[in-house]
Amino acid sequence: MGTAREPELAGQTVVAIGGSAGIGLETARRARAEGADVILTGRDPDRLRQAAAELGAKQTAAFDATDTGALTSFFRSVPAPIDHVMITAGGPRYGPLLEMDAAAVRQALSDHAVLALEVTRNAVAKMRPGGTLLFMGGTGGRRIGHDLGIASAATAALPPFAAALALEVAPIRVNLIAAGFVDTPLSASLLGDQLAARREQLRATLPIGRVVEPADVAALAVHIMTNTALTGATYDVDGGQQFVES
Fold first, then answer.
1. Percent residues over pLDDT 70 in the chain
2. CATH at residue 104
3. Using CA atoms, how far apart are residues 229 and 224, in angstroms rounded to an integer?
4. Is residue 98 in some structural domain?
5. What pLDDT, on a 0 to 100 scale, did the predictor assign at position 2?
6. 57 CB contacts (<8 Å, ≥6 apart)?
7. b/e string for 205-221 if b means 16 or more Cβ within 10 A?
8. Is residue 2, in this structure, part of any structural domain at all?
9. What's the average model confidence in pLDDT over 155-175?
């Protein structure tokens, strides 16, 4: 008989910013299965309560992660030590460049980086060496197209941002996950009645022959948490979407 495998995150604490649904919730679920305590945040109090009850979350907080004051208050309330923080809050912005005013351009270019920076600023003092800050980017925005607009520039900024930040906060690690289409409630809300057609298109064209699920991203996230040699890097999880869509 083989010996039972030890949970890889036993005794560790994972904070999921945007952890009440989709990729954030699935990552928290997998981290919990690996023995971690999980702390969840989200904007929707009801959805957050349901997620916390399912996972047996150690702590929750309902607030908008882009509210700097609320974010600071939350991290003050979190007991040290924290091992890993993952941010899945927020989404991409699309639209023709010339239709955006200066404020909208600044916001679109900086939203994800500013949120990541504010989370880092508040979290690092409570994090254990070797833990990781995990940010979400995308592979679709690497293309240039009329439908993408500002999203391509915002996508391009994140890998060097994460790498530079990794040097500043070492030995805490910083990594970026770049996903393509992931079958989440957010995707469903954005696509509406076009969701089924999009799923079928991806099944027919992706090299993996199926749609990427939140569990696929969660598996990568937990691997990055447990492999302490990984920092300053970007990891793609899009089923090969970037190679077949132009």
1. 96
2. 3.40.50.720
3. 9
4. yes
5. 59
6. 28, 38, 39, 40, 51
7. ebeeeebbebebbbebb
8. no
9. 96
